[in-house]
Design goal:
This protein is mostly beta strands. The protein is built from 4 helices and 45 strands. A hairpin with a 2-residue loop joins strand 27 and strand 28.
Length: 547
Amino acid sequence: MLNRSLILGLLLTTSLLSAQSAFDPSPPLDIPLVLSGTFAELRGNHFHGGIDIKTQGRSGLKIYSVAAGYVSRIAVNPYGYGNALYLRHPEGYTTVYGHLNAFYPELEAWVEEQLRDRSKNDGNLYPSPEQFKVTRGQLVAFSGNTGGSFGPHLHFEIRDTKTEEPLNPLEFGIEVKDTRKPDIRGLKWTAKDFSDAGSFKSGDTIKSTSALGIDLFTTDKQDLANNNNGVYAIEASIDDQTFFTANYRRINFSTSRFINAHINYDLYCSGGVRYTRLYELENNPLKITDTYEISAPAFRASKGWITVAQDSVVKLEASVKDFKGNTSEFRFYIEGNEPLSPEKKSIKLDWEKDHDLTFGAIQIHLPAGALYKTSEFNLLKKGDAQYVIGEGCVPLQTHMTLEWTLDSTQIPGVGWFLWEADHTGKKSAISGERDGAVMTFKTRSTGTYSLDQDLKKPEVSLLKTTTYPRSNSTFREIRLRVADDKTGVERYSARIDDRFARIDFDYKKEMLKIIVPKDIPAGSHNLRVVVIDGVGNTSVEEYTITL
């Protein structure tokens, strides 16, 4: 069918491809490209900003600039993208290379010098456009597993330099072999008042008594790997009229967290599966989806919610595509029936309003817009010290503030922090600010909360008194094991003979890697290391090392 969404899509594709035609990037690796993650894939609290390219299970592969340009930014971080390189290109695009093991030697030496001069272990550096120019195909880095990576791979992005918005790299000719159709792995319906839901399969007829929305669980696989990756486009229609489209071609970091409105968060909490909503919640400004208002004698569609007239039957069809155009489709029917008597509703919080709630020792502040929809917000006390707030299954767009008043037995104590357990029971520590008897914590999650004390300083141990070689580097390093069983390692510093030495923190291996400046002579030297946890407990250790 040739409808308005298809025409608009064709016009958008034509204009975008025209703008991209001048930018023809080459592959960043000299091996066949196999993906472990696709663009805009559904991730925890965000859409994936690029593609993840497998590096054959190892680090140290050569990374090449995909086009001529210059180094505009270098990021060194124990979390997130880890060691990352940003190259700006004259065509108006910026390419990003993440989780790197090391930069090319000239750049690495400059990075170490700059961070050491600033007495910083990590951070962002911005060389001038003239400092580090690169040519197409030039070696710029080595692949790795730094930052929030759980296996060696290259995270690769192409961004619109003007807006900083990531674009789908596959639309620029980055070639990945793919002849496999997306998988339709689950279909569910949800009542508009969220009082009821159910499962169905292709070919079924759903008997509706009120407006409902459709939830779709879909993934895609490429030819050379069995990773369940994200899809490229979704389109749904009622009686051949399109009412919903999703196109994963461009994302905006400022709205990426609205993925918690794009997916059915209740289903994610209960089953760990991310179903895409083919309808909109009230608080959802994402640009990747469109819904179309349709009125017909037999049905009405508004923001993706479907109402079917009594004794009418409508046909719903949907297609899911990957970038190569491989398509999977499903069809089902909705039959309108006599509405049931409305059930009594629980008290809910309006997403457009500020809310201040008192719950035992806790004052809860939810700012307007923190919720994605008007939601039931359960509060439950477990025993004397555990509070359930939102049960971990109410997603938040902005921070919720918890003010916890210490009782008379707690006031003399120090090292207080908050445990937050999500709907699966996984715990994380939240450090707060104290003003007298009141501890203030901020979180963008809901869950089960309990107050605890961290009175133990981090454990620090030197692995050996001599240096280790750094992978893909001309520098050497001293390694220390560091661990903190509650609030975690928050800050750290090192000095060799009272001179600042930069530290790489590999939190996954609980290891501090101290980079030894090249101008320190051979022989015995004093190493002083300071490690501080989330509530300020401090370890200071001194060692004699041999260079």
